[in-house]
Design brief:
Helix content: 25-40%
Pfam family, one: HATPase_c_2
InterPro entries: Bact_Sigma-Reg (IPR052016), HATPase_C_sf (IPR036890), HATPase_dom (IPR003594), PAS-like_dom_sf (IPR035965), PAS_4 (IPR013656), PPM-type-like_dom_sf (IPR036457), PPM-type_phosphatase-like_dom (IPR001932)
CATH superfamily of the largest domain: PPM-type phosphatase domain
Number of helices: 14
GO molecular function: phosphatase activity
Radius of gyration: 42 Å
Structural class: alpha+beta
CATH topology of the largest domain: Phosphatase 2c, domain 1
CATH architecture of the largest domain: 4-Layer Sandwich
CATH class of the largest domain: Alpha Beta
Number of domains: 3
Distance between the termini: 92 Å
Keywords: Hydrolase
Protein name: Serine phosphatase RsbU, regulator of sigma subunit
Strand content: 25-35%
Number of strands: 22
């Protein structure tokens, strides 16, 4: 074919092309323009070779080079030597006008005049045919990047609109022509002048680049999976399930990069039916945030074993956070549930408020008191309370669930309240619903941790498995016999096996005797059964905690706590609000 007949619209070249069209005094290029007529030689002109001097040869005051110039080469010569794949099609059905050698080597020869839809299946694989239609209609070049064909190679393809003037039909197939840039003024007017539109397809092989990019993406996926695995390994592998609560949690890493955040949660059984609930967030992302999170979570579990009030736990954690990294901001909320009180006692270090939804759908915020984030020092934390009656649900969460760049965080908390108000079902169902309602997806840009705690309202046969009984003791020598008699009657009415009743009565007597000897009135003996254990607890007005010690053979006292520790599944003690202490032990019920 003759490329003299074609012109291409290349971005940014229309003005220059129009300017050249206006400079009619510039002689045409060789092989594209007619030779000038013979006439008087212009002054200073060169008549070497019997031809007129071309001012373009020395427009910059330089001699014309001895090698071939762009005017000496046809567009076919240039395109044929390109390593990129080039095809030229024309007409609304994209009939093949030309393919270069690189195109033929990649996909085989293509018959001239055939339609691209029939003879160029590779264009269909690259999804280029609709794009070529659009380019032909709009006259605007379009580029698609890294498209893969059946052989596995990837190409970046640019489709450029071209047109052929009908008055050039007579040009020979072997003529030396060039792709002429069409001026902006001629855009869209070719049809009126009898022109025929086409598309120049230029495809660069980017297989190596695409494969490298895919390897990089695979590496990033592996790194992210490793980071997420590390993060999850620092979280509880299995949540503890207290007798009186039903708990579920969800953690979702944010973003698509390998860096994970420092969100964490935990559930810690404290004994005597009490449960600690923890949620925290170390600001930032990456290994450092995860490492700080792991240290704080481990410390919280250690401090929780001391069975301290929530504000004292955060006070200890605040000092540790300053030692670990004072520049790392971390928030935490720590709450304790006591089934005998039906409420949460909590303390917050800069964390978002705990939400509690009553059985009727009313949602309450545990907003006060709260203190600054961990590690700031100099702040005295305090504890607050919020009711958690049977049938209610509490939600602890990190800021990734409610914080959005386009709105205030209070709006996000309000949206969470609305979602929680209508959330029903198991804790895991509620967890999933809150995640969906707040619009958290796999592409979410921040880590999200959610802890859902339900205090179920028990009825029917299930309620028969949970009982409480208590006896107030005024002291005196008759207190221990009264306690043993009370325990015998209660445990028998609960239909426990005889051996469990005997052990329970023995433990109750020893705890009361220890309180009579080392404590002060008022005293109380509490018995509680759940579906899994028997809990015996004695409280008094003295805050000195008992210690298990080894009694010498000649000692007449000092064996009570050792006896309890030996026969019970577990035992412990804690200080109570307002002064005093509680000493307890547990027995696992037979299955």
């Amino acid at each position: 074919m003759n490329f003299t007949r074609w012109s291409a619209r290349l971005p940014g070249t229309q003005r220059r092309a129009a300017a050249r069209d206006d400079r009619s005094s510039v002689p045409p290029a060789r092989a594209e323009y007619a030779q000038p007529e013979a006439g008087p030689r212009p002054p200073g002109g060169d008549t070497r070779g019997g031809t007129s001097h071309d001012p373009r040869d020395d427009s910059r005051g330089e001699a014309r080079p001895g090698g071939p110039t762009p005017e000496d080469l046809s567009a076919r010569d240039i395109l044929g030597q390109l390593p990129a794949l080039v095809a030229l099609v024309y007409g609304p059905d994209h009939r093949i006008a030309y393919v270069n050698d690189a195109y033929t080597a990649a996909f085989g020869p293509r018959p001239a005049g055939a339609t691209a839809a029939e003879a160029m299946p590779e264009l269909h694989e690259l999804s280029l045919l609709p794009l070529m239609d659009q380019v032909l209609r709009s006259g605007t070049p379009r580029t698609v990047k890294s498209r893969k064909v059946r052989g596995g190679n990837s190409y970046t393809v640019t489709c450029t609109p071209v047109h052929r003037d009908s008055d050039d039909e007579g040009a020979g197939e072997g003529g030396k022509g060039g792709l002429k840039k069409q001026s902006r003024n001629n855009k869209g007017s070719g049809r009126d002048r009898g022109s025929e539109g086409g598309v120049l397809v230029y495809a660069a092989d980017v297989t190596d680049h695409a494969e490298a990019a895919e390897r990089l993406r695979a590496s990033e996926r592996r790194h992210r999976e490793t980071a997420v695995t590390l993060q999850r390994s620092l979280l509880p592998q299995e949540l503890e399930q207290p007798d009186d609560l039903r708990i579920a949690a969800t953690y979702q890493p944010g973003g698509t990069d390998a860096a994970v955040g420092g969100d964490w949660y935990d559930v810690i059984t404290l004994g005597a039916g009490r449960t600690a609930l923890v949620i925290g967030d170390v600001m930032g992302r990456g290994v450092r945030a995860a490492a700080v999170m792991g240290q704080l979570r481990t410390a919280v579990r250690a401090y929780a074993r001391l069975d301290l009030p929530p504000h004292e736990v955060l006070q200890l954690l605040d000092g540790l956070a300053a030692e670990i990294d004072a520049s790392q901001i971390a928030t935490c909320a720590y709450a304790v549930h006591d089934p005998n009180e039906g409420r949460l006692v909590y303390s917050s270090a800069g964390h978002l408020p705990i939400l509690v939804c009553d059985e009727d759908g009313t949602v309450h915020r545990a907003e006060d008191p709260t203190g600054p984030p961990l590690g700031t020092g100099g702040w005295i934390h305090t504890s607050g309370t919020i009711p958690l009656p049977p049938g209610s649900t509490a939600v602890l969460y990190t800021d990734g669930l409610v914080e959005r760049r386009s709105e205030d965080i209070d709006e996000g908390v309000a949206a969470l309240e609305r979602a929680l108000s209508g959330a029903k079902g198991s804790p895991q169902v509620v967890c999933d619903r809150l995640i969906r309602s707040l619009g958290v997806t796999a592409e979410h840009d921040d880590d999200v941790a959610v802890l859902v705690v339900q205090h179920p309202a028990r009825t029917g046969a299930d309620a028969e498995l949970f009982h409480n009984a208590s006896l107030d003791l005024l002291g005196g020598i008759e207190a221990a016999p009264r306690a043993r008699a009370f325990a015998t009657g209660v445990l028998t009415s609960w239909r426990f096996p005889v051996d469990l009743c005997d052990l329970g009565v023995l433990a109750a007597g020893e705890l009361v005797a220890n309180s009579l000897k080392h404590g002060t009135p008022p005293m109380r003996l509490g018995l509680r059964r759940t579906d899994r254990r028997l809990i015996i607890e004695v409280t008094d007005g003295d805050d000195h905690l008992p210690r298990r010690r080894r009694a010498d053979p000649a000692d007449e006292a000092g064996r009570g706590i050792s006896i309890v520790a030996t026969i019970a599944s577990s035992w412990g003690s804690r200080r109570t609000p307002g002064g005093g202490k509680a000493v307890w032990c547990e027995f696992a019920l037979p299955r």
